Amino acid sequence: MIDSLIPAAGLPQTDPDQAHAVAHAEGRATLELLRTLGSDDWARPTDCTEWDVRALVAHLVAQSEDGLHLASVARRELLSRRRYPDKPPVDAYMAVGVEDHRAASGPQLVERFARLWPRATHARRRRPAVLRRITLDPGIPGQPRWRLDYVLDVIYNRDLWMHRVDLARATGRPFVVGDHDRQIVAQVVRDLARGWSAAPVALELTGPAGGCWLLGSGDPVAVVRAEAVAYLRALSGRDDEVALELVSGQASALTPLRQARVVF
């Protein structure tokens, strides 16, 4: 496996055309799951501890609106500071988005998502290059400023993907993996590698969306294996006890892999 390792930090960021294709594929996969939900599902708790299934879907609708209307972003920013001065900025912002759809039923939210997400993906793709180069404060402690193209082409798709995992787990639906999932997983590993400061490790993520990557530079001190979706849940902070298999090398390599976090 080591001979075929890809240095993850050197992977290119998803370009706008790739991101557009991934967004449509992920939107379709999410909508297929949403349309299986029944009346017993909407109040089920999710891994996002403040949200049940209905609130989580409301968040997805709000995210679609944000991708479609920049004015929506500005309005929610202002409201979040006023309504939730004690919350972290990102949490406050998302709370406002969920509140905007508090009167909608679960099925109504599904139809709003079906209508808005495709339009939002087109709108994100059409943002001009000069706008894509501006930098933003993500409002997340320890995070540097982000370029807007990173938010448009990487974060939106990654966020929806992880929430599809949340919904599948909350409702007992299967998490269906397609070709586009590999691109999302690779971009997460890219971010993991770009912030990696521990000894080099060969990371093998198994399953249809997985792959083999080198974290750090130089000869890896260990080869570690994990299931791709499970490990991305751990990177998002959803599972501190994810199963990591030491295939070979130093057991100390497991600790930084378990402690690592990537923004979703």
Strand-helix topology:
Blueprint: E1 6-7, H1 16-34, H2 53-68, H3 70-83, H4 89-99, H5 106-126, H6 129-132, E2 135-136, E3 146-147, H7 148-171, H8 179-194, E4 201-206, E5 211-215, E6 222-227, H9 228-235, E7 245-249, H10 254-259
Helix pairs in contact: 1-5, 1-7, 1-8, 2-3, 2-4, 2-5, 2-7, 3-4, 7-8
Short description:
The model has no long low-confidence stretch (mean pLDDT 95). With 264 residues, the protein is α/β, with parallel strands linked by helices. The protein is built from 10 helices and 7 strands.
Task: Considering the chains and any ligands shown, give keywords for the structure.
264 residues; alpha/beta; 5-stranded mixed beta sheet; two-stranded antiparallel sheet; 10 helices; 7 strands
Structural class: alpha/beta
- Which bin fits the share of residues in helices? 40-55%
Reading the helices and strands in chain order gives EHHHHHHEEHHEEEHEH
Gyration radius from CA atoms, angstroms: 19 Å
Task: Walk across the major sheet and give the strand order.
Answer: 1-5-4-6-7
Catalogue the unreliable spans: none
Mean pLDDT: 95
Which percent range describes the beta-strand content? 5-15%
H/I helix tally: 10
Shape: globular
Distance between the termini: 28 Å
How does the major sheet shape up? 5 strands, mixed
Count of individual beta strands: 7
